Amino acid sequence: MKVLSVFTVLFSLFAFSFAQDSTAGTRLDSLQEKLKILNEKVDKLQKESRQNEIEKLREAAQKRAQSPESAQGEVKQKTFREGSRSLQALNPEISVTGDMLTRYLSEPPHYTEDARTGFRFRVLGLHIQSNLDPFSMAKVALEFSPDEIGVGEAYMTWINPFSRINLTAGKFRQQFGVINRWHEHALDQVAFPLPIELYLGEEGLVQTGISLSWLLPQLTASANELTLQITNSSNEHLFGGREYSLPATLFHFKNFYDLSRDTYLEWGISGIAGTNDNLGFTFARSHRWTYLGGLDLTISWSPVKRALYKGITWRSEIFYLNKQIEAGSRIKALGGYSYVDYRLSRRLILGIRGDIAQPPVTENSDQFLWQVVPYLTFWQSEFVFLRFQFNHLAGHHLAEKDNRFTLQIDWAVGPHKHERY
Choosing a second label site near 390 at 20 to 30 A (CA), which of 7, 115, 223, 301? Predict the structure, then answer.
């Protein structure tokens, strides 16, 4: 009986346990379904919350960017202020250039008044330049030659003291035409063309005074620039050669056109006037005046992606001199030059120049000099180049022909290199 009772109890417990397991399984399935639904709702809410946060951040960023006070504050926080500049930052840029010639004059006796066969170290240049402050800069070029030591240029320039205007004061190469402004070691040939040497002197037009350069609003060209210069009349070829005299006045009007992505055209007109009678600074009406006018034209083609390897430049200038030497007597002379410069490769440049000019003397209507100058330049780098040049000079009713071969060796130390200015 006891056994039966125990069995009955055990069976009841088993049946109850089975019923509980069945109910629990049903509940578990239901709970899992509800949990899945809840997870989906949570994921949806989280996505919506992140999207709302991103939108709020974007709105806050736009408001901050549009707020001038916050923008100024941010700039002030990033501004670096230095109490003093280092001594090294105050040092100017210093460069040294060397220009050596080797000549052979083929006509006996193999020398002239200004040149002879052999070696000649033409000039050693010391170039110094620096920004003086945020408003101005300065350049100095000292020239050391076997015959003398001189100041090639020494000037300072105020950058944009007025809109589109630069102002220069000191001794400088004047902006008459194009290449007169260049240093001799930076020319495309060994020396200046014949008209410049005859009318302006072997070193070109270099005087002391002030210069104003005005980049005009765009007129007919892509860019227009007007240069006005007032200097001492110290050039002995044009003027009296006196430091204190009525000043010479120069103007140059430049017009630049971009013809295409690879080609530009530039033309200009120049004029200068001054006295040549050595009377000093006086407003007397008895002064003798010198006038020199010029036209220049340059066309250059240089492909954008091949500029280091290919390029052609054609440059020409015409000069007209009118100089009163005494009452009723004048020197009138006309001259010009033209050359083509062709870059064969990155290191080789081939060119030829032609010069023609009447000598600056009276009664020269049937007199003229002409010169042909072929040359080849080996551009080793920005710091070294070699140039081989031949000059054939002849004339009508003038001296006999002159032929000479020249090897030019130029080098530069420092940042100046062989720049034009």
Answer: 301
pLDDT at 2: 47
Are 416 and 129 a contacting pair, CB within 8 Å?
Answer: yes
Going by C-alpha positions, the residue among 100, 155, 147 that lies closest to residue 421 is 155
| Statement: residue 200 has pLDDT above 70 | yes
What number of residues does the chain have?
421
pLDDT > 50? residue 118? yes
The three-class DSSP label of residue 252 is strand
Instruction: List, in sequence order, every residue forming a beta bridge with 348; answer none if it has no partner.
Output: 378
Ranges 44-53, 84-93, 222-231, 260-269: which has the least confidence: 84-93
How many Cβ atoms from other residues are within 10 Å of residue 236's Cβ? 11
Query: Quick one: pLDDT at residue 335?
Result: 97
Instruction: Name the one residue in this structure whose structure tokens are 């200009």.
Output: 268
Q: Is 363 left (phi over 0), alpha (psi -120 to 50) or beta?
A: left
In whole angstroms, give the CA distance from residue 358 to residue 196.
Answer: 12
Residue 187 is inside which H or E element, if any? none
Separation of alpha carbons 351 and 188, rounded Å:
9
- What distance in Å separates the CA atoms of residue 410 and residue 385, rounded to the nearest whole number? 6
Contacts of 136 (CB under 8 A, 6+ apart): 156, 157, 158, 159
CA distance 20 to 28: 12
- CA of 314: how far to CAs of 104, 112, 294, 300, 399, in Å? 28, 31, 17, 6, 30
The Cα–Cα gap between 175 and 226 comes to 10
The answer, yes or no, to whether residue 19 has pLDDT greater than 70, is: no
β-strand partners of 150:
143
Taking CB atoms within 8 Å and a gap of at least 24, the contacts of 107-115 are 107/400, 107/401, 107/402, 107/403, 112/402, 114/202, 115/404
